Amino acid sequence: MSTTYDVIILGGGVAGMTSAIYAARANLRVLILDENACGGLVNWTKVIENMPSYTSIGGMELVERIQEQVEALGVDIEEAACIDSIDLTGEEKIIEADDTIYKAKAVILATGRKPVPLEVAGECENVHFCAICDGAAYKGKKVLVVGGGNSGFDESIALLDQGIEELLLVEKMNRFFAAQSTQDELTSHANATILHSTEVTAVSCDEKLESVTLRNIATNETIEYPCDGIFVFMGQQPGTEIFQEQLSLDSDGYIETDELMATSLAGVFAAGDVRPKKYRQITTAMADGTVAALEAERYIRSLAG
Ligand SMILES: Cc1cc2nc3c(=O)[nH]c(=O)nc-3n(C[C@H](O)[C@H](O)[C@H](O)COP(=O)(O)OP(=O)(O)OC[C@H]3O[C@@H](n4cnc5c(N)ncnc54)[C@H](O)[C@@H]3O)c2cc1C
């Protein structure tokens, strides 16, 4: 099966959905392909308090509202899409996903970032990257949190709010990096313990997680910590492996663009967290998405005339 669009947007986070709104309003035929559900990182955010026009809004509610607007404009959305291959080099852009070949005049790459995985955990099913999404399953149980930055502490507090019985947070550096107020809030919980200079060296997980081995980096002592789940917050990295042969990426793997979101390939634009930038926020991702769609429209019109 083959399907043709004016613009295909890879990634339906806030950058991709904003692009879709602008492109659809320009009467372009638009498809969003997302390997998960639309909304991206915003789905993981409990409360957003810096989105203009909302004093406070839940992440999932914000995503629902944006997605409603996207769908009302007639944008096609394929979620849980498995991308088999992608060819951005020709005038016609070709993406194969789930046995369908999609073709477009322009592509907007808005694939954001993915959590850095805990390699020693392998394919263990009890490893998670989002407290709001997966924390409820561990009510009354023991969890390990890996990462002592703001996300590790914030998500630990969110886990305890969901009724976690015992929580241990470990950080491999010799100090924590979260805001002091957040550190104070977590350490005031009777069920939470925090350890720096501690790394996870092994995970015992067969059918389900049994325990982890923790090593004190200063003393080299190891302990076995039995737990039911692991939540990992070791930072984010761009998921750009599928483009790396075709596009110019920076040394950290982010897609290089000019200020109009043009990449190194004609007709290919990038928007949001997948670009190198200092501030990664919802509003900055939306701004990129706007510019990328307006430039994609200009590019498509230039092909016609
Ligand atoms: C815990 C946390 C809290 C935050 N809180 C705030 C806040 O309060 N306010 C604020 O302004 N910002 C906040 N941010 C930052 C903000 O969420 C991001 O900057 C913004 O959501 C990025 O949007 P994006 O569309 O660029 O990327 P993402 O949200 O990462 O979306 C990318 C999408 O692409 C999809 N995708 C990835 N790879 C592929 C592929 N190969 N094929 C198809 N689809 C793919 C993903 O499934 C995802 O849906 C927070 C971030 C985190 C991690």
UniProtKB/TrEMBL annotation:
Keyword Ribonucleoprotein, does the record have it? no
Protein name as catalogued: NAD(P)/FAD-dependent oxidoreductase
UniProt-listed Gene3D superfamilies: FAD/NAD(P)-binding domain
User: What UniProt keywords are attached to this protein's entry?
Assistant: Disulfide bond, FAD, Flavoprotein, Oxidoreductase, Redox-active center
Among PANTHER family, the record links this protein to: THIOREDOXIN REDUCTASE 1-RELATED-RELATED
- Quote the InterPro entries the UniProt record gives: FAD/NAD-bd_sf (IPR036188), FAD/NAD-binding_dom (IPR023753), Ferredoxin-NADP_redctase_2 (IPR050097), Pyr_nucl-diS_OxRdtase_2_AS (IPR008255)
Asked whether the UniProt record includes Protein transport among its keywords, one would answer: no
User: Organism source for this protein?
Assistant: Halodesulfovibrio aestuarii
Pfam families, from UniProt? Answer: Pyr_redox_2
Family of this protein:
Belongs to the class-II pyridine nucleotide-disulfide oxidoreductase family.
Q: Which PROSITE patterns match?
A: PYRIDINE_REDOX_2
- List, for all copies, the residue spans of the domain called FAD/NAD(P)-binding: 5-289
